[in-house]
Amino acid sequence: MSRRTLQLPSWLPIDPYILALIGTVVLAALLPASGAAADVAGGVSTGAVAFLFFLYGARLSTAEALDGLRHWRLHLTVLTCTFVVFPLLGLASKGLVPHILTPQLQGGFLFLCLIPSTIQSSIAFTSIARGNVPAAICAGSFSSIAGIFLTPLLAAALLGSSGGGFSGDALAKIAVQLLLPFVAGQLLRRWIGGFLARHKKVLGYVDRGSILLVVYTAFSEGMVAGIWHQVTPARLAALLGAEAVLLAVMLSLSWYGAKRLGFGREDRIAIQFAGSKKSLAAGLPMASVLFGAQASLAVLPLMLFHQMQLMVCAVIAKRRARDPQEEPADGGAVESRAVTVN
Q1: At what angle do helices 265-275 and 295-321 cross, to 10 degrees?
Q2: What is the dihedral of CA 330, 7, 319, 338, to 10 degrees?
Q3: What is the CA radius of gyration of the chain?
């Protein structure tokens, strides 16, 4: 990990990467790939996603993940928030159809609730709030690993054919395009881990560039298929309102629920930030595999939720940093307060 400190601005932040994503969507709207160009873009996008998950596997330290198992209650709480409570709330959103959300937007909203937690921002906000940073690192890593297996299974069970073309074939695509590269990265980590660590900055651009390519391909397919006439400003406003409620519920449940379970302040901070977030980096590639031509509508709720969670959690982290200290729970000590980012 880099030693540089992440300084968040005092005003509500707008993630520059979100601006890049928005620019990519605009580009796809103005110059969508079609015909032979769409075939080329789709093939390159498929390869980029596979390489992305290969890098995820190669970067993940198995030893660090195993060391974090001693905090099993904390990790189980985060996994419960991510893969049980979130999906239940996503299922409840079916009551918003058709008066508030369209079936397609509700499918994207439900998909948002099925993907794993984010790692980098959970670590950053946990550190700013003076929480249990090692626990946040392990919780995010466990969630990412579990999501590779659980997200497709949950999507198969809860979305079914309504997920914009999701079928049993998508499970095979997930295995070939996501799981196998991830396992290959883990197996090769001992030989290439040092190289990846030395070129972390350059590979970070590869990560983000791959995701931008996935977004461009998905939104191009949506433009060519003519699905964007289904989204009106009123529907977008309704979607934002529903996501604001979702985030508020998860932030409250993860904080007060962890307190009820007897966790100390530092552990509760890690649980709140890791248990209330969703990973844009993991969700976008999975959506491209699961939803096909409907991926543009499926990822729209995720893109909006990602920016919302950054803005809200930035405010919460700074307020938590001013809380009075208390004795840490067992295993909850934090030795370093510096915010580290990959």
Answers
A1: 160
A2: 20
A3: 19
Left (φ > 0), alpha (ψ -120 to 50) or beta: where does 341 sit?
beta
pLDDT tens string 231-267: 788 888 999 999 999 999 999 999 999 999 999 999 9
For residue 320, give the amino acid letter: R
Distance CA 214, CA 342 (A): 21
At residue 282's C-alpha, the angle toward residues 331 and 118, to 5°, is 30
The two three-digit tokens of residue 332, written as one number: 């909850």
Inter-residue contact 175 to 145 (CB < 8 Å): no
- Smallest Cα–Cα separation from 277: which of 130, 116, 169? 116
Is residue 311 within 8 Å of 104, Cβ to Cβ? no
For residue 215, CA distances in Å to 23, 67, 211, 227, 295 come to 10, 35, 6, 15, 9
Residue 32 identity (one-letter amino acid):
P
- Residue 299's pLDDT is what? 83
The rounded distance, in Å, linking the Cα atoms of 87 and 182 is 24
The pTM (predicted TM-score) of the whole model is: 0.76
Structure tokens at 3: 């030693």
What does residue 60 show for φ and ψ, rounded to 5 degrees? -70, 120
SS3 277: coil
- Tens-place pLDDT, residues 47-73: 887 887 788 778 767 666 666 567 889
Q: List, in sequence order, the alpha helices (H) in the chain.
A: 16-30, 36-59, 62-67, 72-80, 86-92, 103-112, 120-128, 133-158, 168-174, 180-198, 200-225, 233-260, 265-275, 280-291, 295-321
- At CA 95, angle to CA 92 and CA 97, rounded to 5? 125
